[in-house]
Amino acid sequence: MKPLHALTQIGRGRRLRPIAQQLLHDQYGIEPTQLAQITEASNTIFRVSIDSTNTYVLRMTALKSCHGADEIRSEAAWLHALDADTDIGVPAPVARLDGGYVSEAPLPGEPGPICCAVYHWVPGHMLDDRLTEVNVQRLGTLMARLHDHAAGFAPGDEFRIRTFDSVFPYAAKGFAGLEPIVLFNEDVQAPLTSEQRSIYRDVHELVADEMKRLIGNDDPLRVIHNDLHVWNVKVDGDRLYALDFEDMMWGHPIQDIATTLYYFRWRESYDTMLVAFRAGYESVHAWPEDHDGQLETLIMGRMLLLANYIAVSEDSEDRAFAPEYLSRCEGRLRDFLDVQDG
Fold it and tell me: pTM of the entire structure?
């Protein structure tokens, strides 16, 4: 039997479906009429339909993920607070029959269990399919409102998430999973040339210096979503819903903004979308960029983080995609260095 990470997305869904059905029955008392796989990422996600008015989402976190049960419980805690304190659209977590929010299901042939959590389904279309200036402005407003709530959010002692204090926060010890840094290490096998490693190294020095200045300022850290991209937001009429809080960390608002705008940066409409996003954000909160170039540098940091993830991933589809993605990143990073040198 192939390990789970070696299967395609569809293959993972087929293997996990009976485990998902049993888990829903035993721990949530849910008997779905339909279980539809909807994921296009390393996690396996099912839409759980009960009837026309009751629909949930079951997320089964990838075994090789850097997100463990403690972090998923922390995710549920912030979602609970957002759902209780605000009218921000979020997928509220669903409790098990025993009141818990994270299940760890054993998998035959795998060394450890898979972490699972259930959330309420939210309506609408993915933002990427409704990408207008108006909706991007609403996205900026949504992020600013999340930042405002996070500034006053006081979690309990069991709240445990990473701190975004380095370019590669998933390399930090003490959490589930540990992502090695392979972009600069000639001794580590990865789909990278020596020339590519040199480009990545040069950009990393600039991003690391920027992050050192950012983390060293006097502004307090707050919880940030850290993955609010166009496939993690739904649009329902004039309302936006923020999805997938799995990557949330302690950080600064400008880091959150950089993560989101990375996914706009190389679209032809980037300048227009940046203006719209900033207008939405500033309708709630002051723009948090300290100096010119800070946002652009942190966007490059997001690229380094994703490039390292792709280079180290054992997922079969990531490995097939890695050479093309790393080459594309190299060209964009070269352009960034040329601007710095000019």
Answer: 0.93
